[in-house]
Every structure is written in C-alpha cells, then in structure tokens.
Amino acid sequence: MRTTFLIIFILGSIYASAQDLENNAGSNHGNKFEQLGTILPTPNEYRTASGAPGSRYWQQKCDYDIQCELDEKTQRLTGTETVTYYNNSPDPLNYLWLQLDENQHSSKNNANYQKASSTANMSNDQSLDSLGRLTSTNDFGENITKLTDLSGRPLSYTINKTMMRVELPLALKPGQKFVFKVSWNYHITDRNIQGGRGGFEYFPEDGNYIFTISQWYPRLCVYSDFQGWQNHQFTDNAEFALTFGTFKVHMTVPADHVVGATGVCQNYQEVLTPTQMARWQKAQTANDVVEIVNLEEAKAAEKDRSTQKKTWIFKADSVRDFAWTSSRKFIWDAMPVKIEGKKVMCMSYYGKQAYNLFRRYSTKVVAHTIKSYSHFTVPYPYPVAQSVEAANGMEYPMICFNYGRTEKDGTYSETTKNAMIGVVIHEVGHNFFPMIVNSDERQWAWMDEGINTFVEYLTEQLFDNKFPSKRGPAYLITDYMKLPKDQLEPIMTNAENIARLGSNAYGKPAAALNLLREVVMGRELFDYAFKQYAKRWAFKHPTPADFFRTMNDASGENLDWFWRGWFYGTDAVDISLDSVKWIKPEFSDRPSRPMDAQSLRPVRKPILPDFEDITQLRNKEDKSLNFATDADTSLRDFYWKYDRGIIPYDTAKYASLNSGNKPVYDDKIRDKYATKNIYQLQFTNKGGLVSPIIIEWTYQDGTKEMEMIPAQVWRLNEKTLTKIFIKDKEAKEIRLDPMRVTADVDPSNNAWPKIPEQSRFEVFRARQKQVRETSNANNPMQIEAQKEKKAF
Measuring CA to CA, which residue among 321, 448, 331 is closest to residue 397? Predict the structure, then answer.
C-alpha cells in the first residue's frame, strides 16, 4: 500500500507540475521566462527536441477508389469505395476507425453535443422552424449498406455517432496493408438550412442547384505516434485529422453539369464539348484568365436541362481528403501560374450571381495566394488550385468554397469585394495549413486557422498595400484580450471548448505571430524559422510542440516566454508608463565626502555563519572527520586565526585609506555628458503578459526617435521596472507602442505627459458622424451606375 501511494503521489506531482505554468508562484520573477519544460511532451525517436521529425518517424497511408452518383432530383448521393490501408506504425492494429461526418446532421447518429438555445418573446416563422428542426427526426446521415473485405466476406462494424469502428479478421501487423469495400448513401443537406460544411444550394429563380460535396465518404481517422487513433466525435466546430493517400474518384452527374474536384481530371476529352476542350488547351499557356465555360453557356444550361448522365474521373496523389462540386449553373475559368518553374492551373467555378466579382478577381487571387504562400512556406506541390463560389467558406485539397455575390444589377459594395478576396486567400491558403502541413485540426484549431490567418494577412498586404485586413495586426485583437478572464481561454485549448473561436483560434494566433515577426524576432530570423517548420512537416503530422521547438531551434531565439504567455495564458499586454524623471548631470570638484568624524569606520568583524546548521554540528561531532585545515596547517592564514579569536577583533574606528581624496574627472567624459539629458522611466506590467517595450521619443525640435527594449528586460521583475536613457536632446513627449504593434489593450497609460481622453460627448459625436457618412453609401458602385444611367 505504501509503495502504491508513493507511485500515485509521484505521478500526481508530475501531472500537477506539467499543468502548473508558474514555477515560482507568488513571486515577481521566475515564472514568465521559465522554459516550458514538462509542459511540452518528452522528445523521442519519432519527434526530436529540435522540433524535427525523428529518425523513426512514421505515419499511416490510405488510398481510395470511389464510384459515386449524384441524383439531383432527390438530392441523394450513392457511393461505393475500395479502401487500401497501410500500417506503417510499429503497432499491430485490431480495428480501424472511420469518420462518418454526415452523421452530424442525423437525428439518430449525431454527435449529441448540443448547445444552449433561447428565443425572444417575438420571433419570425423561419426562426421557429429552425427550433423545430432541432427536435424533429430526419433521414440525414450516412447509411452503410455493405461492408466487406476484398474477397467479399462481410466485416463487423460498430457506428458510434460520427465514428465507425471496423473489426479486422486478423491483427494488421506493422508493414501490412488491408483492403476493404464499403457501400453507402445519404440525403444531401441544404447548406443554408441544415448548415454544415457542404451540401446543396437551391436557386428558386431558375430552379437549379449548386452542389458542394465535402466530408461525404467514409474516411480513415489518423493513427499517430503521439495520440493513437484520433476518433473524437465531429460536431462541426473542430475540423479534421486525416491520413495522406491517393484518390481515384468517378462521379456520375447530370450530363450538363460542370464538375470541379480535388486533383486532375482524367477524361476532359469525354466530358467537354470540342469548343470547351479547345479553350481548356488554350488556357494552358494563357497570360490571362480564359473562360472554359462562359456566361452565355451557363445561362443556356440553366434553361435546357439534360436528362442524360456523364461520369467525370479525377485522380489526386498525396492528399488527405477529396471534395468536389457540380452544377449546370457554373461559369468556369482558368489560367496558369509558375511556381518555381512548375505549372499550376488556377481555376474558378461560379454562377451568374457572382460573375462580376469572381470573373475579375477569383482566379487571379488564387494565383496570387499560392505564389505568396509558396514564398513564405514551401512551393505549392499540386497541379491545380480551385475556388468555387458558394454560400460560405470551406477548404479542401486543391479546391475550396468561397462566398462573394453581386447585387442583381451586377454592382457590389467594397465590403463585399474585400470579404470575397479575403476568403479566397484564406481558403486557398488552407492548402498549406493543414492540407500540406497536416496538423490535427480537431484538437488544435489554431495550428491550421491561426497560422493560416497569419499568412493570409501577409498575402493580403502583398495583394494590396491598403487592403483592410480584419485579422493579423496586433491592435485588432486588443478588444478580445482585455475581456474579463472568465470569458477567455488559452489558445492551447481544444476547439470544442472555445467560446469565441474566431478571436481565439484565428485572430490571437495571427496577431501573436505577426508580433513575433515584426517586433520580437525580426523578419529575417522569423521567416527562416517559419519556412523550416513548413519544410520539416510538409506531408507529415506536426504537433504544437514541433512548431514551438522548430521556431526556437531554427532561429537561435529562446521563445518559451512568448509561447508561455501568448499560447498558454490569458493575460493581456498593458504596459504603463508611470513616471519620467529628467536628470541633467552636474560636475563638481568638491570631495565626495568631507574629512570628519563620520568618515571613520570600524574594522570589519570576522565573517562567521549566523548559526551552525545541522550539517556543521554533525560534522563537529563526528570524530572520524579530518578537516583540511587540520590536516594541513599551512592553510591556516590570518583569517583562520581571526575568525577563531586567536587574533582579537579591534573595536577602534579608523579613517578610510582613501578618505578625503579629491575626485579627478576626465575632461573628455565631462565634455561628453555635460549636455546630455538623462531620463529614468518607470514602467508597470499591468496586463501580466510580458512584452517588448517600444518607445517613441519626440524632442523639442520636433524630431522623433524609435527605440525597442526586448521583453527579456522583465526577467528579474515581471511587474515593474525602471530604465535609464541618455539622450542628446530634450524630450517633449514620450509614447509607448505608437504603431500599436504589441497588442497593448490600454493606450491611455502609454504617454508622457498624459494625453487627455476624449469626453463621452466627443466620443459619441465622432461615432455619429461616422455613421452619417457611411449609412447611405454602402454601395458607391451602384450609386455611380445609377448616375450614369440618368446621364443617358
């Protein structure tokens, strides 16, 4: 029992220390700059302490051969797939786990993670219907109609909500593969009613559909060295962890539909008209966007519906998923772009309702995005990159769904345009995070959303230097970071448990990485380390520790304080400039201390311990011990005797040997500092998150100087500090973080002299003015078009 208790106590202590982020709780130092230590997993032969894959790193592989058919009239999808699973792990596997994400919509097999709901005293009929659907039964979800091994023998399986466990006839040993077949079908959901990542959208004005088919087939979960099976239920918030492989997919659809999908089409000659095929071939070497299916052809297809069917065949290598889209409403355009000498076909699919926006921007933004991301990470490895206009944004390998429609007259507001460009960049950018650098989205949302949002910001700013990015700059996250602590959680929180996912998993990590790049590390160091992370983990499964360690290792910067504060904590940046002392040096020839009685000092007493501790006492009692000064009396100097009273202590007082010496100043030093202005600044870390201190000095002559003090200045006192600055000029104003790059949540305490805040009346008046200026000008393009019509 005693041994068991000891083991439990030790394990509990290890767990507690791993969870406790403070090494020196209650102190003003020794916490925020300590290494992450046991907070990170122990390095091993699979994942090294440098953040790189280890010598025995492994990951599984899964190939799919899928045949499916889309029934547009009944909005039903039926499919059969042959799955080949390769066990590259060192572990024998008795079963496989597959994801059935469509069960999210099922009233029988959903993940059963319900959210709180409420309604007002007054509501509309659609809101009431939405509440009714939450409690009614439906026929959504995947129906597994057959599951066999390659020879046709049935396999046992269990469906647990959105997960399916397949029992293997024999344990799948390391190095072996297992092939099985599964047949299934499901009722496609209306993405505007049931929600979700895919589905259909119906257009009553012309009676047609746009289908965006995603998370649609039974697909393998990840089995990894750091987690085992990632079989957490899918509830729509946390996304996916998937295994790389090869896909070959046959999609049978109405003959007049246009299909876009992950990968490269294998049979354009069969499914395109000769005219469309000629345009496709022209697009291969075009310098501008070429319409493969044009607007007039799309409008004609909306009216003249075919009763025939066609099968489109796509193949994709080294991808973790497969998605596709199908509609007779589509205009389809394309252009090539070269990424390090390799051609990538950039393409877009969109209905007439998005023509004036998507035709001008979509494909060119796709091209810009993969060029920008390739610069910051790894060269885009796939042969195509596609953007599909849909009701909301979502990403898959080589294809993504994005919103952005015009008014009926073809005009659009600037807000709509910028939102469309931003979402195309964001969703295309997901090809890199997590489609290539394949992090576990279901566990760590920030590793795909936050990192991607950061590179999205860089890409937006390279697209247009006046682009109004919504996330990325530090000042845009301050409203979130200054919320009460009970409304916050660390970035390192499971996605299902995050109250404000957009701010926590997108905005805060993006701001943190931008701060790291622009302020803490500098672009050269950051960009090198960030690229190393992308190179190391391209087509692999990284964890947060791999990212943190790689950034440290490749840059030579100890950034554990940064990861600790920004990713594991909820503190905010709030550095207060409390006081400023202005000192002018004065040089005097008078002695530093007059020769008087006060300058007489006693002789220093013997330096002895205040008390004898238990070790000293026991050593004294132990007659077997032989001290060195006893064994060798030559070691007994003056102080050995002085400490023992052999030479007595002199109680008289004596003048210092150098007392009364007149100080002599070096003329060069006096000339150097006689005209200097010395400023002592006192700072308080009110927010708790340690940060670099960026100071803007404005001098009496109107000139300015910017100065940065690294965050490590807080090492020995994480709460307050003073620092001396010597300046040639007299300061008129001192301001902290003038460019708002540190995410300081309270600028009101950042200046000297203090700048008065606006009165409440003045703030209200400014806001009212802003509203008046914009409330009647939501769409200047539309207003200008109306003016032109009146002119004629």
Answer: 321
Backbone angles phi, psi at 475, to 5 degrees: -65, -20
Give this prediction's pTM.
0.87
Strand partners, 696: 706, 735
How high is the pLDDT of residue 616? 66
CB half-sphere exposure, 600, CA atoms < 13 A? 6
Instruction: From residue 253, give the alpha-carbon distance in Å to each of 313, 325, 329, 717.
Output: 11, 10, 14, 67
For residues 161 and 104, the answer to whether their CB atoms sit within 8 Å is no
| CB-based burial label for 437 (10 Å; 0-12, 13-18, 19+) | buried
Residue 485 phi/psi, 5-degree rounding, is -60, -30
User: Exposure pattern of 755-785 as b/e (b: 16+ CB <10 Å)?
Assistant: eeeeeeeeeeeeeeeeeeeeeeeebebbeee
Number of other residues whose CB lies within 10 A of the CB of residue 228: 13
CA-CA distance, 438 to 543, in Å (whole number)?
9
> What is the Cα–Cα distance from 208 to 73, expressed in whole angstroms?
10
**Whether 215 contacts 192, CB under 8 Å:** no
Q: Write out pLDDT tens, residues 592-612.
A: 555 444 567 788 888 777 767
d(CA 137, CA 122): 26
Q: Phi and psi dihedrals of 231, rounded to 5? A: -120, 35
What is the Cα–Cα distance from 141 to 103, expressed in whole angstroms? 4
Amino acid, single-letter form, for residue 124: N
Angle formed at CA 454 by CA 371 and CA 44, multiple of 5 degrees: 95
Contact between 61 and 247 (Cβ < 8 Å): no
CB 100 within 8 A of CB 165: no
In the block, tokens 């594991």 appear at: 568
Token pair, residue 87, equals 């066990």
> What span, in angstroms and rounded, lies between the C-alpha atoms of 48 and 54?
5
Residues constituting the chain? 792
Q: What pLDDT, in 10s, does the model give residues 510-545?
A: 999 999 999 999 999 999 999 999 999 999 999 999
Q: Which residues of the chain have pLDDT under 70?
A: 1-20, 111-136, 588-599, 611, 613, 616, 635, 655-665, 755-778, 787-788, 790-792
Identify the H or E element spanning 82.
Answer: strand 76-86
Q: Return d(Cα 118, Cα 131) in angstroms, integer.
A: 9
User: Does residue 582 contact residue 679 with C-beta atoms inside 8 Å?
Assistant: yes
Residue where the block lists tokens 């102190």 = 27
**CA-based torsion, 46, 50, 53, 55: positive or negative:** negative
Which residues is 224 bridged to in the sheet?
228
Which region, left, alpha or beta, applies to residue 737 given φ > 0 means left and ψ of -120 to 50 means alpha? left
Q: Which two tokens stand for residue 730?
A: 């007299």
Lookup result for tokens 């297809």: 301
Residue 249: both structure tokens together: 């997919």
User: Using an 8 Å Cβ cutoff, are 240 and 442 in contact?
Assistant: yes
**CA contacts within 13 A on the Cβ side of 493:** 21
Question: What are the structure tokens assigned to 555, written together?
Answer: 């840059």
CA distance 47 to 553: 13
What is the C-alpha to C-alpha distance for residues 31 and 565, in angstroms, rounded to an integer? 10
Bridge partner list, 270: none
Tokens encoding 329: 């409403």
Cβ atoms of 689 and 568 within 8 Å: the answer is no
Distance between CA atoms of 190 and 182, rounded to whole angstroms?
A: 25
Non-local CB neighbours of 132 within 8 Å, separated by 6+ positions = none
- By three-state DSSP, how is residue 744 classified? strand
At a CB cut-off of 8 Å and minimum separation 6, what does 374 contact? 339, 340, 380
Q: Buried (b) or exposed (e) across 294-303, using 16+ Cβ within 10 A?
A: beebbeebbe
